[in-house]
Amino acid sequence: MTPQIDIITGDITTLTVDAIVNAANSTLLGGGGVDGAIHRAGGPAILEACKKIRREQYPDGLPTGEAVATAAGKLPAKWVIHTVGPVWRGGEMNEDELLYNAYANSYRTAAEIGARSIAFPAISTGVYGFPKERAAGIVGRFIDEVAMHETIERVVLVFYSERDSALFAQNR
Ligand code: AR6
Questions:
Q1: Atom of ligand 1 nearest to the CA of 125
Q2: CA count, 13 A, side-chain hemisphere, 51
Q3: Less CB within 10 Å around the terminal CB: N or C of the chain?
Q4: Which residue segment(s) compose the domain that 86 sits in?
Q5: What is the pLDDT at residue 57?
Q6: Residue 149 has pLDDT above 80, yes or no
Q7: Tens digits of per-residue pLDDT, 129-144?
């Protein structure tokens, strides 16, 4: 079954879906942007869970393109899937594939824990500087190729501004 795809403008921390994806960094210890918003809204339980993952699974940090799940603390979602998108370095450093992996591995992780709905922010397109038009093409490909796991019924792509939503629609 192909999932329903919704494109919305807003704050990902407010969404009532099973899993929201965090555009984290490899430390998993928080940061700015959507990462900061998720930790602020979800409270300390998320950071505690991230520290445990660092200790037990990824002492050197989560590699770019990989994903891990934690509880979601006070958020309406049940889980946060933390992934690390690539830092944009001009496009010749495997950035496209790493961005694709961040989406696909987050999706797979959510499916494995039984999530039926998942919301993604525009990974790497803030602090990490990935061009938004180019990211749109990669997210479009991910949606077409990967997002058809039977346990996930709804995929939400969340953009922080109307302009970013429109850019995605034009470039996917
Ligand atoms: N809801 C939805 N989208 C948001 C929100 C929100 N609450 N806040 C920001 N965005 P960024 P990155 C959008 O910088 O580029 C952090 O410090 C924003 O407009 O959050 O992957 C991490 O710790 C942009 O389009 O993530 C890392 O160090 C998109 O989310 C680093 O930033 C992603 O912007 C990761 O950088």
A1: 15
A2: 6
A3: N
A4: 4-171
A5: 98
A6: no
A7: 999 999 999 999 999 8
Considering its fold, how many domains does the chain have in total?
1
Q: What percent of the chain has pLDDT over 70?
A: 97
The answer to whether residue 148 scores a pLDDT higher than 70 is: no
- What pLDDT is stored for residue 162 in this prediction? 98
- Which residues are near ligand 1 (CB < 6 Å)? 11-13, 23-25, 31-35, 37, 85, 121-128, 158, 160, 164
Contact 5, 142 (CB under 8 A): no
- Report the CATH number that the domain containing residue 120 is assigned in CATH: 3.40.220.10
**From the alpha carbon of 164, which atom of ligand 1 is closest?**
25
Q: Which of 92-101, 143-152, 163-172 has the lowest mean pLDDT?
A: 143-152
Let me know if 96 is a catalytic residue: no
Question: Which of 6, 11, 18, 35 does the annotation list as catalytic?
Answer: 35
Cβ(150)–Cβ(1) below 8 Å: yes
The structure's pTM equals: 0.98
User: 3-state class of 30 per DSSP?
Assistant: coil
**Rounded Cα distance, 2 and 152, in Å:** 9
DSSP string, 56-115: HT-TT-PPTT-EEEEE-TTSSSSEEEEEEPPPPSSS-SSHHHHHHHHHHHHHHHHHHTT-
Whole-angstrom Cα Rg for the chain: 15
